[in-house]
Write a structure and sequence with these properties.
five-stranded mixed beta sheet, six-stranded mixed beta sheet, 17 helices, alpha+beta, 33% helix
């Protein structure tokens, strides 16, 4: 048997985020120790969901746990349409931060809001009046010398502190005149001019600046300077922040009469205009955890509390719930716990036909290095396989893994002889298992012959 060769993970070319220290947070009496807190999750329809914004950013930032329910991985869903953003490049700085959507998509959100209000017992006329007032267009305040751009983070933070319910009064004055329902009205020109503008570092400065998290220059590692990191984190937080009003720019057809050049699209026969409106139906981004991730945060790190119907579950109760919902949960969690403890970031490997994918540091920094198959065996590596593999299926799975620049790894969970079915009903059984890793590689006779001849 040839000895397995471990290859260095393949790093992604462009990385635009800083690497945070993963869990567990240092439990000390200094300032860092005070950052530790217990996050909260709920079991909703057989899914483990984290709703609190601070918990979402903490869990995903420190270990890349879970995925956004509306995003590909990182919880960064944005209502804006990228193809429309490319058409409107000459917008004023105050409008660049607002998402741009089509009129068709906006009307879809209006219909969803109407269905929600009618489901609460309102008649059609009342819902039409409320939505008509709430979704009415208004003139977005024009900025001078990019002043609105400099207070965007502050404005977004203050917008999130308002109430999240529909206004009870149907009058337009309540919507437009009251600062509670029109948060931008309280930002006057005098206050905006006193704000400090955002500082953009010079290119020559970046070429000589070392990264505060990596042994490399800022321009090479892709991270941001320390002064910019806080701004980027605030901007990332504002993407998924629960705001009372979400302002959007809706692309609508117009007559091109009395419009500014920047608001007219000249490269098409049909002319459009951007109208600022409030989004009546907001879609909130939540973090969804797998059962293995949730139990590891509860059992392995002790930084998560999972509740069902507002009742927190103990570790023993949570183990029973997950085992009842997922038949192979004990074996899948043991493999997950093993690789997490070794510093890997395991993710679901369903798209490649395996159980797990192993990332170094996290998906934003490196491509997955290994595709893992979990098997249960005794001390003699015998037993009924969890995934029956023939030589043909194993060869096809290995070829698929090699085509995506990964290696196939079989993780054997060696079960002791004295373990009983009663022991498997408690998470204490994890301590009795041992793990053996086997890397599957293709043996090429000509290549092996050349290597031996060189030796």
């Amino acid at each position: 048997m040839s000895q397995a060769t471990f290859h260095a993970p393949r790093r992604k070319r462009k990385v635009y985020e800083c690497y945070e220290s993963p869990f567990p947070i240092p439990l000390s009496h200094d300032n860092h120790g005070t950052d530790f807190r217990v996050c909260r999750a709920e079991i909703i329809n057989n899914f483990i969901v984290v709703k609190t914004l601070d918990d979402i950013l903490l869990l995903y930032g420190k270990g890349y746990f879970g995925k956004g329910i509306l995003s590909r991985s990182r919880p960064e869903y944005n209502i804006g349409q990228g193809e429309l953003r490319g058409r409107w490049k000459g917008l004023a700085p105050s409008k660049r931060k607002l998402p741009i959507i089509s009129s068709k998509k906006y009307q879809l959100h209006v219909e969803w809001a109407r269905s929600l209000l009618e489901g609460q017992g309102m008649d059609r006329s009342s819902t039409d009046k409320i939505l008509g007032d709430y979704c009415s267009p208004f003139d977005f305040p024009e900025d001078k010398d990019d002043t609105l751009d400099s207070v965007d983070c502050k404005a977004q933070k203050e917008l999130s502190s308002t109430d999240s319910s529909f206004p009870a009064d149907d009058s337009t004055e309540v919507l437009e005149g009251n600062p509670v329902f029109d948060p931008l009205a309280k930002y006057g020109s005098e206050e905006l001019e006193t704000q400090e503008p955002c500082i953009v570092p010079d290119r020559e400065v970046l070429e000589k600046m070392h990264c505060h998290r990596h042994d490399d220059l800022i321009v090479h590692c892709g991270c941001k300077p320390e002064k910019q990191t806080a701004r980027n984190n605030a901007a990332e937080k504002s993407v998924i922040e629960r705001e009372e009003h979400e302002y959007v720019l809706v692309e609508e057809e117009q007559d091109n009469v009395g419009l500014k050049d920047e608001d007219v699209q000249e490269d098409k026969n049909e002319k459009f205009k951007l109208v600022c409106r409030r989004n009546p139906f907001q879609m909130f981004e939540y973090l969804q955890l797998s059962r293995e991730e949730a139990f590891f945060l509860v059992y392995g790190l002790g930084c998560l509390s999972v509740s069902y119907k507002k009742e927190p579950l103990t570790i023993q109760k949570l183990w029973k719930v997950f085992c009842a919902a997922q038949q192979n949960f004990p074996t899948s969690y043991m493999a997950y716990h093993h690789f997490r403890s070794k510093g890997w970031v395991p993710k679901v490997g369903l798209k490649y036909g395996t159980d797990l994918l192993l990332y170094r540091k996290g998906p934003p920094f490196y491509h997955a290095s290994y595709s893992v198959i979990v098997e249960l065996a005794n001390a003699n590596y015998e037993g009924s396989p969890l995934r029956p593999l023939t030589w043909r299926s194993l060869s096809g799975l290995n070829r698929t893994t090699m085509n995506v620049s990964k290696e196939l790894l079989i993780c054997y969970l060696i079960q002791p002889e004295d373990i009983t079915e009663k022991d498997m009903k408690s998470p204490e059984c994890i301590k009795k298992f041992t793990v053996q890793e086997v890397i599957v590689s293709r043996w090429i006779s000509s290549q092996e012959r050349m290597e031996h001849e060189e030796l």
